[in-house]
Inverse folding.
């Protein structure tokens, strides 16, 4: 079946799209119930690996003593030009590692929604996918842009804006990976498409994402480790929003067409 994601985007440019908050929340919770154990366990493992990689790279670049002393007061403005360069490089490397994992979580949500098989290894499928290059490029572009803006803000002295700008960039690009893996768009096209989707329904998506973050924070009650099993709510919601807004046009199965609002 012909991929009609680009045609759908042209339609959204002209007419926008509607999201029912109640429908999105209902479908998100249904999807989350199916994926929580697989994605939660993957999150837990990946977090340990990622922390180890981050500490290792930072210790190599800055030295163990310097890194530990600077950890509590991390401001790029305090770094030398060489340290700034390596800080940006670490951010780019981490983005390249994280994006295929992020895509795998969304694939689990999709398979659960469309009754396809999935398991723990599904989360890591995109590390050996033809889409890996575009996923890495998207992560590098977004991370580089975010890091550059944050660095400039820190040097300008407006430190209070750093977190706001970082979260805003993440919010605008939140659907980049779905557009790559489901819409088969190139990295830059996917970033542009994500920004379009967000701005066409800005406050509804913002509200839904805030709700997902609040639900995720409930995991902190369960001795902190529970956060890894509530985080998948965010990815279930991103998947549901994307499918309802854009649709998923799967060449392998007519049942996967996202025109229908019946997700689960």
């Amino acid at each position: 079946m012909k991929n009609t994601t680009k045609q759908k985007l042209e339609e959204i440019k002209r007419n926008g799209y509607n999201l029912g908050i109640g429908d999105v929340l209902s479908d998100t919770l249904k999807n989350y119930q199916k994926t929580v154990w697989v994605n939660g366990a993957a999150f837990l493992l990946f977090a340990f690996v990622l922390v180890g990689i981050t500490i290792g790279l930072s210790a190599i670049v800055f030295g163990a003593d310097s890194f530990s002393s600077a950890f509590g007061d991390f401001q790029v403005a305090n770094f030398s030009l060489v340290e700034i360069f390596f800080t940006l490089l670490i951010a780019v490397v981490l983005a390249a590692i994280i994006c295929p994992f992020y895509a795998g979580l969304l694939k689990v949500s999709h398979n659960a929604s469309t009754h396809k098989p999935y398991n723990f290894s599904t989360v890591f499928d995109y590390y050996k996918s033809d889409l890996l290059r575009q996923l890495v490029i998207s992560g590098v572009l977004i991370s580089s842009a975010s890091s550059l803006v944050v660095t400039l803000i820190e040097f300008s002295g407006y430190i209070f804006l750093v977190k706001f700008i970082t979260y805003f960039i993440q919010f605008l690009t939140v659907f980049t990976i779905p557009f790559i893996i489901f819409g088969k768009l190139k990295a830059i096209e996917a970033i542009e498409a994500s920004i379009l989707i967000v701005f066409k329904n800005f406050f509804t998506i913002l509200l839904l994402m805030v709700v997902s973050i609040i639900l995720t924070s409930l995991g902190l009650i369960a001795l902190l480790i529970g956060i890894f099993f509530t985080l998948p709510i965010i990815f279930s919601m991103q998947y549901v929003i994307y499918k309802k807004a854009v649709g998923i046009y799967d060449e392998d199965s007519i049942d996967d067409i996202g025109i229908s609002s019946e997700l689960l």
Q: What stands out?
A: Confidence is low (pLDDT under 50) at residues 252-264. The longest helix spans residues 21-62.
